[in-house]
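Usage example:
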Amino acid sequence: MAAGRFLFLAIETTCDETGAAVLEGPRPPEPGVPIVRSSVVASQIDLHERYQGVVPEIASRAHVRQILPTIDEALHRAGVTLGDLEAIAVSTRPGLVGSLVVGLTAAKSLAMALDIPLVAFDHLEAHLYACQLAYPEKNVYPCLGLVVSGGHTSLFACRGPIEAELLGGTIDDAAGEAFDKVANLLGLGYPGGPVVERAAVTGNRAAYAFPRSFLHDERLAFSFSGLKTAVLYAIRGQDARAGISLENPQQVADIAASFQEAVVDILVAKTRQALKRTGLRRLGIGGGVAANARFRERIEAMAAEQRIDLFIPPLSMCTDNAAMGGIALAKLAAGQVADLDIDVTAGLVRPKNKK
Ligand code: KG4
Ligand code: ZN
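Running the assembly step on the lines above writes:
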């Protein structure tokens, strides 16, 4: 290890992925972006597949089984031991309460046993920080942040990595959740994003005129439940229009492509509106839906047209992972060390009740 470098472990268990990563960066409070020495993600997809969605109790029990082997593997791949670590970082909000508790308990135990600082970070701020990790030589902040995941579709004005102000978000389903539910309706499997994207490749995006909620609304809000219902009616039939056969690949592809285009239209339009409103000239994007190729293509085109600097992490850093816990370095630089009696916060903390 280079002299003066700072080595720390990050833990991520907000939902259904058990993540551990070892990072190395400048010693706080010196500013700088850490490098990822190792990042391990133990997926639970096979456990939740038969239910077509995440079952919270199954997720927390799987985290209990996977957390120590995942941490061991991250240390092993980085070629370090527990004694080399100088801080333990963990995401404590928002997420599934039973899942969050497992990561926090592991993090507290390590911090106490090793007598090193515990750092608690926000999962959504961390999703956006993945942009900074992906472009270490650039200034990503201040930026508009868009988190598009299975649980959230939120726009933030980010003054810095740990200063994200919520501008607006979904009032019902998240974008990723809509992909998961539509995949289920189309009988495509789980998780929905990648399978709907694959099915959409051969589909006609204009085959169905699905609704685009809030598109012409002043509010920076999203809604995807009407879209999901429209997809349901298109599949089952309504208003004298026959439904489709799930056995017919072209019909499935047309629905998938038309649905995906509606989601992408909404995400791109609301992001453009938020850029205009805030005057921010940089855009950072995080979360699983940011892995979608059509979304990336359309958001890149919008950013180019608006002359906005766009930052999107590589696919492995879009979906849940612990490397994005590198944000802990910014927290340590700001003197934000957590007490050992800190608890998790399952829900999204909105600005008005933020403590
Ligand atoms: O960020 P993430 O891994 O976990 C949460 O924090 O929720 O996001 C998972 C979500 C799932 O809903 C999944 O269907 C969606 O991201 N997703 C995608 C793609 N890959 C994952 N959605 C659209 N296209 C994709 N390629
Ligand atoms: Zn996430």
